[in-house]
Amino acid sequence: MNAEKSERALKHAALIVLVAAAIAFPKVFTNPAVTNYGVLAMIFVTVATAWNIFSGYSGYISLGHAVFYGSGAYALGIAARDWHVGGTTVFALLPLVAVVGAVIAVPVGLIALRVRRHTFIVITIAFFFIFQLMAFNFSFTGGSSGLNSPFLTWPASGYNTPFYYIALAFAIGAIAISWLVRRSRFGLQLRAIRDDEDRARGLGVRTMRVKLSAFILSGALTAMIGAVWFYYINQVAPQTGFDPLFDLTVVLMAFIGGYGSIAGPVLGALIIEPGTLWLNTQPQFSGGYLSEILLGGIFLLVVLFMPRGIIPTGGEWITRLRTRGRPAVVPAMAMDAASGAAASSGSGSATSGSESTTSVSSGGTR
Amino acid sequence: MTALLRTEGIKKAYGGVQALNGATLEVAEGTVAGLIGPNGSGKTTLFNVITGYERADEGQVYFGGKAITNAAPDKVFATGIGRTFQLTRIFARLTVLENMLVAAQTKDQPRNVLSWFGKDAWTHHHRHAMDLLKFVGIERHANVLAGSLSYGQRKLLELAYVLVADPQVILLDEPAGGVNPTLINHITDRIRELNSQGKTFLIVEHNMEFVMGLCANITVLESGASVASGPPDIIRTNKRVLDAYLGADLEEDSDDDQ
Fold it and tell me: What phi, psi does B253 have (nearest 5°)?
């Protein structure tokens, strides 16, 4: 019990230190080139976490989340342009952007979530291209030249800092929602769907409703952070708002960190986004796609040696170290012997008063 | 005695293969009924049709006098029919306790979407879930991942998480298949105890000793149709059953011996 308490206290302390470090980041590193890394890292922490709330928990791998990201950017741009909204008031449009993301998720989800696995992935890619083509061809989206964001009167020297804190707030919010979902009955139903959807349905889980709700939540979050990204970089075009590399990058982040866990996509985003940005600034890597090749190599190594991602595999290593070779789960033989004794005595509680404490390998909130 | 669960002339074909061809059975309330037949006779398909995993081409399924034919699996479960599978289907990456809570949640569906996020909405099921894990004898594994359980333990977990929603009828697909004799006795005891508390069972099983010792009434399927139904003593001596199933098994056994 005491070990459990001290472990929890340690986790809380680590969390406080991490949040404090994230808050202090732009105060310590004032160089705009560095704070730019911070803003984009926080944006991708939010995106990867939002993706994980649906795909990580339900097992439905979406390769079309750029639909929400781009739609969020366009929704903010169109609303600000047509309603003549400028300055910081633009941020008041973010709830509307969330509604746009949610509204798009309903028909897309109702169609895509009827199928599973590879077919689902293909359908999400198809939706991605439909949205990109629409952005190219509709006049209200600005066609191939896209949209420019409204002017923001923040001083150039500290321009990144407010955006950093906005993106950080979104990242913390998304992580908090991810945590809430994971510990709730909703999250349990999603994870049951991931393991065996038909079985979950046979145990009364209304699978379509649960999947669609997660898809809507994920879409709304992604749309909002897409709008923040648009306002930060000042423009959106069909090929940047609906970018196929965006989808691949988000999935890569979640896979490297460990999808289905809370911390995995966060860690993946914190590794990949600044890593890619830094590599692109290095002369030896620029222009030749060497940075992408290097990232691909890292991804290969992780998949080969940590197929479930850094966080879950790391957790298993820690458990192995703690148990020092002892099995983390009580061997089946012990149980069978106990149940045999119960059967012979006719007792209902076959293993009451168990002599050993079961170590938990994983499965709790990570 | 009233039939709690009844099927009438169920037909189901997969392409040119007629898996069920007029399967009819009755399960009286408060009894343990058996469903036997050679491999490929349609036993599991009939289970799938009853529980909504497969759609019937023809025929009807009645539960408590009400037609539930082709209802979705979640609806069938909500009406009070739980089932286990021939090859256990547990949620391998959830803990044993979480497996139990998935089924427990159907007892009180949330009023709105927001209430799904509240952990308190289902924590009150913990005690009931733990009591059932204790009942089947795997309560000390409550916090381990279900995927790390042995096959026999998975069978027990499947039985326990079907029980957590308190169904009226439990369909067990080969509960004794692939488990050791000690565990078979344990499962038999648990079924008897639950039956004495009023639970109704329909069991598919190839272990004749298990079926004959446990079931009050047995239905025999052959080529998707019901060929006989009655108490174990009658079934044991029915010529058609002996020809279709028991005799064939005996012949197979004697062939194996040679």
Answer: -60, -45
Contact A342 B193 (CB under 8 A): no
Asked if A329 contacts B92 with a C-beta cutoff of 8 angstroms, the reply is no
**CA B135/CA B142 separation, integer angstroms:** 13
Nearest to B98 among A188, A198, A352 (CB): A188
Q: Is the dihedral of CA B135, B139, B141, B145 positive or negative?
A: positive
pLDDT(B251) > 70: no
Residues of chain A contacting B76 with CB distance shorter than 8 Å: 202
Q: How far, in Å, CA of A362 to CA of A349, rounded?
A: 26
pLDDT greater than 70 at residue A340: no
Buried b (16+ CB within 10 A) or exposed e, B37-49: bbeebbbbbbbbb
Span B3-93+167-257 CATH architecture = 3-Layer(aba) Sandwich (3.40)
Cβ–Cβ gap A198/B73 under 8 Å: yes
What are the boundaries of each domain within chain B?
3-93+167-257
Q: Can you give the pTM of this predicted structure?
A: 0.85
The answer to whether the Cβ–Cβ distance between B137 and A206 falls below 8 Å is no
Select the residue of B72, B102, B185 nearest A343 (Cβ to Cβ).
Answer: B185
* 3-class DSSP assignment, residue A9: helix
Interface test with B, best of A199, A211, A344, A358 (most B CBs within 10 A): A199
Nearest by CB to residue A195, choosing from B94, B137, B141, is B94
In the beta sheet, which residues pair with residue B219? Answer: B35, B229
Angle, helix A244-257 to helix A263-281, in steps of 10 degrees: 120
Tokens representing B120 are: 């308190």
| Strand-strand pairing, B17-28 and B32-36 | unpaired
Q: Which of A184, A204, A343 sits opposite B186 (nearest CB)?
A: A343
Give the C-alpha separation, B78 to A188, whole Å: 18
Minimal CA separation from A356 to chain B, in Å: 9
Contact yes or no for B150 and A332 at CB 8 A? yes
Report CA torsion sign: B243, B246, B248, B253: negative
- Give the residue from A254, A273, A247 showing the smallest Cα distance to A67: A247
pLDDT in tens, A75-93: 999 999 999 888 888 999 9
User: Would you call A288 an interface residue with chain B, using a CB distance cutoff of 8 Å?
Assistant: no
Among chain B residues, the shortest Cα distance to A333 is held by B150
**Chain A interface includes B111 (CB < 8 A):** no
Chain A residue closest to B163 (CA)?
A: A203
- The answer to whether A106 and A212 have CB atoms below 8 angstroms apart is yes
- The predicted pLDDT at position A3 comes to 74
Question: A206 at the B interface (CB within 8 A)?
Answer: yes
> Residue with structure tokens 């026999």?
B152
Alpha-carbon gap, residue B238 to B43, rounded angstroms: 19
Q: Say yes or no for a CB contact (<8 Å) between A204 and B121.
A: no
- Cβ neighbours of A2 (radius 10 Å): 6
Instruction: Give the range with max mean pLDDT: A321-325, B104-108, B172-176.
Output: B172-176
